[in-house]
Amino acid sequence: MSDEEQTRLLREAADTRALIDQRIDALFAPEDDVLRAAREAPAAHDMPSISISPAQGKLLQTLARAVGARRILEIGALAGYSGVWLARALPADGRLISLEVSEKHAQVWRESLARAGLADRAEVRVGPASETLPALLEGPRFDLVFIDANKDDYPTYLEWALRVTRPGAFIIADNTVRSGQPLAETLDSAVDAGTRGLWTYNQSVVADSRLLSVALPTDEGGLDGFTISLVIG
Ligand code: DHB
Ligand code: MG
Fold it and tell me: 143 in ligand 1 pocket by Cβ < 6 Å?
């Protein structure tokens, strides 16, 4: 096969993967005005546009419903896109607590959850997670934890997630597939702290007998995705 032919086939495969993502989003996770506004909020407020995909939101919602989630914790709130998907899985007396380091992001998040009519069951706590996590030990256990914040601290967030969840809960982390580096057999010593954190996270969940885990390419044409762990003991 010529180089040109190979390049053409690779482009076609990438286009097809993108088309599949689009079709899954459109068929299984169509956005209403609330979700669309939450997706567009980062760009409008000079924040990074790094929300999860619609299908990832639907997956979070499905997993929350599967465990009958009444209490959900999110580490990394951004503009509330995943927050809306998750809070919509809660019963009226349920609770979503989102931790966010930026007061500006938290304000946009509150607007997104208010627009969804979910402000009664959702709160964002502002500050470094190292300061907001310890208080959670005082409250009831969580049924689902979603980790989507600074990647270098994922291993620490996993330890906290294990402390605040009940058996039968899900712990889900975003970006743990990231072009394959966090899945490598051995870690390249030259990688950045974020990639190291993601790699260590995957290693840790696999090694932990309290967790049943799998990574799932769910975004970016399969180039990125979640690690999903069920707390089994
Ligand atoms: C980045 C962070 C994310 O959580 C994500 O889903 C995509 C990109 C980032 O920091 O670049
Ligand atoms: Mg992410």
Answer: no
Q: What is the pLDDT of residues 183-207, one digit of tens each?
A: 999 999 999 999 999 999 999 999 9
pTM for the predicted model, two decimal places: 0.97
CA-proximal residue: ligand 1, atom 5 (nearest) = 50
153 lines ligand 1 (CB under 6 A): no
Which are the contacts of 155, defined by CB distance < 8 A and separation ≥ 6?
Answer: 197, 200, 201, 204
Pocket test for ligand 1, best of 49, 50, 226 (most atoms within 8 A of CB): 50
Q: Is the shortest distance between the CB of 195 and ligand 1 below 6 Å? A: no
- Per-residue pLDDT reduced to its tens digit, 109-146: 999 999 999 999 999 999 999 999 999 999 999 999 99
